[in-house]
């Protein structure tokens, strides 16, 4: 058994682990299988220790308070159309509603166009197997079903509705569900015990023309299969020789063994157990046809005997079913998926007391390796709904399992690290499967499922442009991604060379690699090559073609850049040697000069310096565009609405002329980003009331814009609520805005900065920026400490050229 490795040098262990992971799974595709699996296990002990320290624990009281707080439960219904006026009522209800009624009566497919059907999934249970708590009835299952509905929404933007059916009778249950078909795009059956669940699911699949999916069977099997694929890789095992014990021969157990056998594990290598022990050929007690199909030729007559020498334990039974002796008896480097909820068959702590060579997974969120169907059902239904699939078939399930397994082997972005309490999970025994908060799941799993549906002929509406579909999926999860997807598409069509000025920073290297991987352009990392490479190596990032490293001192353009800078600064008190030093030592000067000289198209910086320091360096090299003002514009996305706020970066106390100039710049940016500007010049007052010096300055700016005869809508001075709320704006019928403002001109830098930061921190809004505009070349400055995703976004905006 390997020795514990608390003393292992962290750096070398990370390097070794990455070497192993890269060789096996690197994009280059090399399959290097000679490195020691034992080493993996030792090195991962460091991650295990960190995981143990950061585990989230909750109390029963907290769980009850959470469910009771505010509006009891976890769901509410939110209208998607305004219902504010008499006209709205006429359209939404009688008489307007009759029109879609008649259209649907004529052609059923139109229900997908005029109703919620295409995005609603019913989560249906009778409470006969609530988690591993047993048959507690329909009503008691409601918290779980509401929870599943929330997960549908949170992770895949599907509207889940929980339905608890109070019957244990199979036929009555089937009849309750079959007639609900017109209401939903799919049916997710949940926590219905075996063997009734098999009959219910198979009959409903025949009776209904929408996907019917028993989550506890297939969801569980898919995620367990993905975890098993990766655990087999990590332990150097082959599915064809693996010995598996599955404890629990109910919904989840039968589905798990069916799927692993379909993946290549031989029939007699799988021992399925239930409350009576192993299901062996010839057993008669407690059997049914589904169990019989998996009866194995084995001498084992107890779970303990079955576990002797087993490679894998799949637990889908009840809390505490596995003893320490059973764990001890397993093969070296055993794979233990104790998936019973809420408490596993054996805890990771108990396993750790016995041995340190095991890969351990549970169904819980508070341990690493959460093998739970939450990783499956939201995304599988998303893919199925988006192609209007008639069913979820085997190919779609396998596609989901493979996509999930592959994702865990990819490098992990900052967003995941944040959701993972600041740790960056790395493929290994403590991270065999993506975490539920991984934002990549939404753009990875549904396309795989949709493709499989199209290939197998169950898609009623095939997707033509898969790349675009993946972008739309990201937008469902993250509104910024939606706003950016158009920009990303344009950038991809004309890829540029972008300088990442702080090239020795891990987040910047990660961002640059992602920029290249997403085919957005060439990334130039400024830094000392050996340090950049070492940082990349430590972080497990591959320096691929398209990712260049430029060292200012060694650059063959060094002298020309210093001369260029000198030409700019010689009459501003700088000697040539000052400029030489700035080029050699300050990456912002070097990077900006690269862009100014045409050796790169754009630059992104700001991670290590505060905004004003970075901006001041850039401005010494790159002037404002002739006739333009340099300002910062932030894009705020909240409640499905996009609003630009200016000036969030440069002008502290703008004059009336400054405000008018800023309005013109901001309107130009709005158009460039695809919005027709309606500019509100904000103040605390509305159209002269109450009067005051600051409001008067804004009023003067409005009058200046009038004199300039600008080609966009503007008005003010007005308060933010009047600008954004049509009801309040209606009190000023003379207001020239044709609708709520989408560009908010703040009276000063303090109000601009305070309001955008409050929106960001108080939740409900996403803020992108400040986006720097008005410079003669494309440079963007991210906030200090920005994450890799923000850096990539700003690099794309720089390439897009909003300046
Ligand atoms: N992590 C995840 O994503 C998921 C986990 N699960 C968990 O799996 C478990 C089973 O769920 P599900 O299949 O839906 O339930 P079912 O009621 O359909 O099946 C339960 C099975 O467990 C067996 N069982 C009960 N107690 C024991 C025991 N002490 N030893 C051996 N077998 C036992 C039962 O045996 P018998 O047939 O003899 O009655 C039955 O075969 C639950 O704990 C659930 O939370 C389920 C779905 C997803
Ligand atoms: C996760 C789940 O669906 C269960 O434990 O039943
Ligand atoms: Mg369940």
What's the structural blueprint in terms of helices and strands?
Layout: H1 10-25, H2 37-54, H3 60-68, H4 86-92, H5 98-106, H6 111-114, E1 120-125, H7 142-156, E2 159-164, H8 170-178, E3 186-189, H9 196-207, E4 212-214, H10 215-235, E5 244-247, H11 251-262, E6 270-274, E7 277-278, H12 289-292, H13 303-307, E8 312-315, H14 324-329, E9 335-338, H15 348-354, E10 359-362, H16 377-386, H17 394-408, H18 414-419, H19 441-455, H20 466-477, H21 479-493, E11 496-500, H22 506-517, E12 521-526, H23 529-538, E13 547-550, H24 558-569, H25 576-585, H26 587-596, E14 602-605, H27 611-621, E15 631-638, E16 641-646, H28 656-672, E17 678-682, H29 693-708, E18 713-718, H30 720-724, H31 726-729, E19 743-745, H32 749-761, E20 765-773, E21 778-781, H33 788-800
Parallel strand pairs: 1-2, 1-3, 3-4, 5-6, 5-8, 8-9, 9-10, 11-12, 11-14, 12-13, 14-21, 16-19, 17-18, 17-19
Antiparallel strand pairs: 6-7, 15-16, 15-20
Helix pairs in contact: 1-2, 7-16, 8-9, 10-11, 10-17, 16-19, 17-19, 19-20, 20-21, 21-33, 22-33, 24-25, 24-26, 25-26, 26-27, 28-29
The structure holds NADPH dihydro-nicotinamide-adenine-dinucleotide phosphate, pyruvic acid (PYR) and magnesium ion.
């Amino acid at each position: 058994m390997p020795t514990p490795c608390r003393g292992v040098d962290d750096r070398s262990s990370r390097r070794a682990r990455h070497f192993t992971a890269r060789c096996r799974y690197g994009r280059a595709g090399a399959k290097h299988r000679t490195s020691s699996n034992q080493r993996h296990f030792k090195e991962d002990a460091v991650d295990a220790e960190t995981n143990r320290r950061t585990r989230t624990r909750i109390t029963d009281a907290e769980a009850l308070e959470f469910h009771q707080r505010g509006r009891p439960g976890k769901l509410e219904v939110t209208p998607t159309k305004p219902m504010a006026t008499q006209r709205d009522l006429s359209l939404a209800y009688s008489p307007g509603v009759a029109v879609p009624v008649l259209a649907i009566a004529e052609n059923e497919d139109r229900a997908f166009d005029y109703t919620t059907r295409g995005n609603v999934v019913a989560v249906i249970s009778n409470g006969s197997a609530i988690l591993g708590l047993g048959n507690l009835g329909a009503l008691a299952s409601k918290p779980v079903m509401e929870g599943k509905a929330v997960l549908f929404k949170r992770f895949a933007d599907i509207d889940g509705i929980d339905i608890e059916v109070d019957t244990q009778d199979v036929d009555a249950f089937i009849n309750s569900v079959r007639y609900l078909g017109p209401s939903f795009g799919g049916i997710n059956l949940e926590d219905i015990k075996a063997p009734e669940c098999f009959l219910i699911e198979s009959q409903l699949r025949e009776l209904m023309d929408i996907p019917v999916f028993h989550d506890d069977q297939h969801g569980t099997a898919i995620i367990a299969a993905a975890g098993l694929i990766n655990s087999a890789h990590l332990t150097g095992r082959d599915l064809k020789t693996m010995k598996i014990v599955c404890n629990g021969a109910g919904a989840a157990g039968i589905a798990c063994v069916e799927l692993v056998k379909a993946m290549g594990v031989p029939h007699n290598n799988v021992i399925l157990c239930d409350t009576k022990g192993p299901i062996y050929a010839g057993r008669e007690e407690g059997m049914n046809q589904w169990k019989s199909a998996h009866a194995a030729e084995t001498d084992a007559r107890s779970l303990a005997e079955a576990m002797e020498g087993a490679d894998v334990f799949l637990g889908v039974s009840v809390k505490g079913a596995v003893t320490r002796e059973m764990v001890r008896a397993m093969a070296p480097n055993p794979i233990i998926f104790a998936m019973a909820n809420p408490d596993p068959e054996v805890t990771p702590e108990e396993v750790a007391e016995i041995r340190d060579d095991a890969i351990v997974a549970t169904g819980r969120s508070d341990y690493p390796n959460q093998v739970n169907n939450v990783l499956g059902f939201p995304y599988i239904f998303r893919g199925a709904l988006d192609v209007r699939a008639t069913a979820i078939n085997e190919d779609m399930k396998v596609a989901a399992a493979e996509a999930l397994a592959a994702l865990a082997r990819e490098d992990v972005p900052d967003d995941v690290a944040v959701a993972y309490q600041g740790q960056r999970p790395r493929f290994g025994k403590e991270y065999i499967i993506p975490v539920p908060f991984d934002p990549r799941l939404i753009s990875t799993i549904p396309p795989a499922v949709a493709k499989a549906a199209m290939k197998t002929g169950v898609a009623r509406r095939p997707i033509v442009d898969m790349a675009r579909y993946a972008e739309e999926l990201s937008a469902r999860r993250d509104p910024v991604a939606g706003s950016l997807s158009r920009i990303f598409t344009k950038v991809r069509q004309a890829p540029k060379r972008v300088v990442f000025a702080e090239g020795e920073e891990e987040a910047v290297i990660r961002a640059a690699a992602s920029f290249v991987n997403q085919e957005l352009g060439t990334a130039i990392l400024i830094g000392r090559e050996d340090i950049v490479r070492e940082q990349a190596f430590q972080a497990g990032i591959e320096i691929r073609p398209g990712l260049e490293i430029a060292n200012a001192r060694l650059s063959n353009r060094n002298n020309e850049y210093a001369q260029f800078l000198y030409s700019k600064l010689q009459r501003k008190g700088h000697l040539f040697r000052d400029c030489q030093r700035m080029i050699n030592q300050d990456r912002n000067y070097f990077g900006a000069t690269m862009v100014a000289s045409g050796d790169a198209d754009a630059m992104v910086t700001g991670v290590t310096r505060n905004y004003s320091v970075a901006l001041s360096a850039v401005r010494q090299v790159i002037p404002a565009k002739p006739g333009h003002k340099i300002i910062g514009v932030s894009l705020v996305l909240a409640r499905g609405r996009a609003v630009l706020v200016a000036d969030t970066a440069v002008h502290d106390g703008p004059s009336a002329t400054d405000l008018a100039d800023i309005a013109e710049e901001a309107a130009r940016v709005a158009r460039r980003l695809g919005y027709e500007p309606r500019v509100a010049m904000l103040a605390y007052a509305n159209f002269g009331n109450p009067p005051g010096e600051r409001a008067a300055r804004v009023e003067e700016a409005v009058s200046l814009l009038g004199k300039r005869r600008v080609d966009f809508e503007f008005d003010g001075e007005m308060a933010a609520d009047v600008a954004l709320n049509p009801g309040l704006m209606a009190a000023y019928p003379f207001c020239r805005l044709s609708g709520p403002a989408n560009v908010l001109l703040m009276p000063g830098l303090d109000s601009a900065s305070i309001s955008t930061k409050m929106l960001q921190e108080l939740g409900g809004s996403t803020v992108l920026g400040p986006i720097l505009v008005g410079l003669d070349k494309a440079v963007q400055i991210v906030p200090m400490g920005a994450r890799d995703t923000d850096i990539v976004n700003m690099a794309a905006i720089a390439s897009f050229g909003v300046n």
